[in-house]
Every structure is written in structure tokens, then in C-alpha cells.
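Changelog excerpt

This revision adds worked examples to the README so contributors can see how folded entries look when concatenated. The first example is reproduced verbatim below.
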Amino acid sequence: MSIVSSYATPEAQEALKRQRRMASIASLVIAVLVVVLVAVLLAFLLLPSLRLEVAPLVAYSSEKQEEEVIDRPEVTPQVQRQPAAPSSALAKVIATSVPTPTAVPVPDTDTPEQSIEFGDGDDFGEGWGQGSGTGFGGGTSFFGVTSKAERIAYVIDYSASMRSGGREDLMREELTKSIDRIAPKTNYALIFFAGPAWVAGDEVDWTKGEATVIGKGRRKYEWKSPGTAHEWRQVGKKQPVEWLSATQGQLSKSRKTIKETRLVWGTRWDNPLEMALDMEPPPQVIYFMTDGAAKGSDSWAREIGAKAKNKGIKINCVAMMQPKAHDSMEDLAKRTDGHFTIVMQGGKRKKVR
């Protein structure tokens, strides 16, 4: 409580009171201004750190995939088209490059793989086109059995018994077709046999009980028989078999060899299969064709089957119009997880397994 001098006049006292009111109002205004100024300064300092981050917008747009026609170097009877995937599975993501604290899940989608089914009929037809695919880079087919592999060996019966029933012409025709279907990345080998066995294209000088194969570099490989068709054996060093590249020049030579090689006497098919198994690197698939039921076939199937299974070699067997050869050849195919096909009179074929 302020004390006013009793000696002051009433006018002086009133003036003093007004002066005090003005001073109080001025002080209040100054205090308010100071508070406002402090608030403004704080706002400039704090507001940038409190700025709201706006998450970038992620949008999805669906785009229909065009159907794709598979283009093959060799024309086949049917053209397989890849089915269009559902539009929801083919949605593409459009996103900004600005980082965002919000994670947007993008589902992984798998486009259905093209399915190529090879049919099996009772007659001859084109079932394989040239070209490379997933997995192995080559392959071919023989008597309706298709294989995808980079190394394929043929073990083919060129015995004199093939002359009967049209077997010879059918064998040469189908073997030539198989060679023509070989994909460019495939290595292959042609091994012919009767009593003796030899690499296709080699010279063979033979009599009823002896044969000389003249191979690469004019090296000679001797074969002998005690006089029977099924007891031929190689004398001395075994003949090695080399891989051939599927070039146009080499394929042309093979076609000529298939056509011109003459049939000879005897039938023993374990020796040529052993030659194929001894190749380096070993074949992945062997196409084996014979018309003969030779003495010892059952034991050959067991022994050859065990060796091939151990090396991971699949043997596809073809019995050419010879019912007596069925059991041992089916057993050999089964032991190596291969296929067994019977070719009947007139060229009709039946796939047993």
C-alpha cells in the first residue's frame, strides 16, 4: 500500500495516481511484447524439426502381357504358345526414389513355365526341334524316345540279320532322322556292331572268325570268334571312341556313313556298350538298338546295367522285330531308368516303359 504525503495538494495527488497507472500499463504492454517476441523466436527454432514428413505415394498399375510365340529354327507340326499370366501377377511397381519410413510389401510372382509335352504314337513323326533350352543344351529323339542331353551315344546293330523284314531300311531311315534332329550344342558318337564292334566310318576287314577294324590314324584293332555268332571278343588294345560335334559338316559325314556302311556277320552287343561306357567324358544317354537275342544277353543286361547306373548313364533300348530280345533289353532299360521300345513288323512301335 502506497503512502501519499499529507502535505500534497489534491491536484498533485491525482496527477501522481495517473502517472502510476500509466507506468503500470506500460509495464504490462512491455511484458506482453517480450512474451510474444520470445514465442516467435522459439517458433523459428523449433518448427523445422517438427515439420511433418509426408510418405511418398506408391502406386500400382496393371499391364497385360502379350502372348509370346516360340520361334524354333526347325518348323514343327505344332507351335506352342506361352499362356498369358494373370494381370494381377504381372503388376509392375512405380515408386519414387525418396526414402520412406513406411514399408510397402511387393509380392514375388512366378510366371508359369512353358510346358512342352512330347507325344508318343505308333508311327513315325517329327517330335523334336532344334534349339537349346533350360538345363541341358542339346538333345534329339530316336524311335519316338526324346532325350535332352549334351552327350548322346548311339549303339546300333549292323548285323546281317537286319536284312530281313525291312529292318535295315527302317533302321537307316530312323537313325538318319535322329541325326538330323540333333541340337547344335550336342556331342554325339556312333558305334556300330555285329560280331565285332567299331566306330562308324572305320574300315572293317572280316572273315567268319576274324575281323580287323582300321580306326583313326590307321590303327588296327583285332577281333576273333571261335566260330559262333555270339562269342566275338576283342584281342589286344581296346578301341577308344571320340565325341563328335554336331556341325553341319560332321552331320553330313554321319548321314553318308549310316547309308553306306554294310552289314556283317554275328551278334554280340555287350562289347559296343562297353565301348560307349568307357568314353571320356561318359555319355549321359545311350540309344541302343538290336534285332538279336544273343547267348548271354541276360548276364550282359545285369553287368552293363550296373556299370551304367553307377556312372549315371541312361540307356534307352529299342528291340527291332525280335521277341526273344525283349526280356533282357527291358531289364537293361529298367536298371538304368531308361525307356524300352518294341518296333513291330511294318514299323509300328510300342513303348513298354
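The second example, added in the same revision:
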Amino acid sequence: MKLANVAFVGPGILSSALCMDKEFSKHMLKAAGIPTVTTLSFERDNTVPYAEAVRGLGSPLFVKPANMGSSVGVSKVHSEAEYDEALSSAYQYDTKVVVESFADGQEIECGVLSLDSLQASVPGEIVPTNNDGFYSYDAKYIDDKGAKLVFPANLPADLTRKVQDMSIAAARALGCEGMVRVDFFLKANGELLVNELNTIPGFTAISMYPKLWEVSGVPPEALVIHLINHARRRFDRESELQSGR
């Protein structure tokens, strides 16, 4: 849309590409001082052996394609055999793989929206109830009982504010505007880790992003109108820029 000179909703080219790549997005978050899960990344010709990955990250591990969404190709592994199988699966979707440490805790999500400035919704929580043990592709799209969505998350006020502040900080660190959903792990000791940012969050009647804004006082119809208006304002603003001297 950018190259076609058409107004569009959501983050631009650079921020979208950075958020899509699980390796580079975490580099940017760490550079901004935002805590995130510990990660290894590699391609097939320099794949990290299972024993080395466990020494660095602990067990269990998550294996993921570096550039893929909706938990496609994601596996939770507890053994070398599962690790090898998970790598084979991940390499079907990308030439680069990330391996992440397991953050045992609640899965918290927060919506960020460009109003006069970046604003954060109330946080929500995803409670997986499927046999995969995490919010897998099947839990998201196939098994209607694969997860319970809680709006808003049952968090104390200070932690709610921390999630919101970190969501805005993460969006700024990756240059996001318009809309983005920030996903967290909240560990039992209170440590809050950013998992990833989703620049094209789900927008169905049961999706987290519109639900979070609905319980924050912005119903779906108003949210859509606002996003369209923001896209138009940005397009007009950027149209006034000069491309040379």
C-alpha cells in the first residue's frame, strides 16, 4: 500500500517487518531496555544442537519459524527427539528459526492505538485449556474450547499500569503506529516479559484486540472509524513531505 501511494491502517513497512521477525524485534526491545524472553536464532547450516540450547535456555524450549504468525510451525519441546522434529517443522515455514526459553506464567495481551498519542487498552489474559500446553494454532482457530479469553485481566492496578506503559514503550521502540497488540508473559514472581508485537491483530468478533478496546470504552464500530481516520491523516501528513531538494 505504501508503494502504491494508498492510505493504509497500521504500522509502516519498517516497523511491520521488524515486528514480524522474532529475532530482530527482540534485539530492538532489548536495545530499548524492555525485558523479553531469552532467544537463540540460527539457520539450517548453523543449527544449534539441543544440548547447547538447553544449557543456554533451560527446558522446556519453544521452537519457532522466525517470520510466521498465528503459532504456525511453533512447538514446545522437552527432549532431543522433540527438538529435531520441531526444527523440521519450523524449517518448513522459514529459513531462520528462533528457539526461546519457556516463560512459565500468565499470557497477557494489551492493545495499543494511535489517538492524539499512543494509548494502551486495559490488558486481557489468555488461558490455554488445550492439550498443547500453549496458545497453539489449533487453540486459536480450530478448537473452540482451546483457550479462555479474559477481558479485562484480573490484575492489580499497579501491574495493569505497568503492562500499559510497557506496551506503549514497546510500540515506540519498534516504530509502531495506528494499531498493534503487545503480548506478554507474566511470571509468578511478578516479572513481566514482552513476547512479541502483532501489527495485524485479529479483528473478528472474538479477537483480543477489538475486545480489549471495547472493554476500554471504544466499541468496534468506533475503533474501525478511528483507524481509518488515522490512516487518512497519516497519508495526508506524509504527502506533504518532499522527496528531494
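Reviewer comment on example two: The chain is about 35% helix and 25% strand. The first strand starts at residue 39 and ends at 43.
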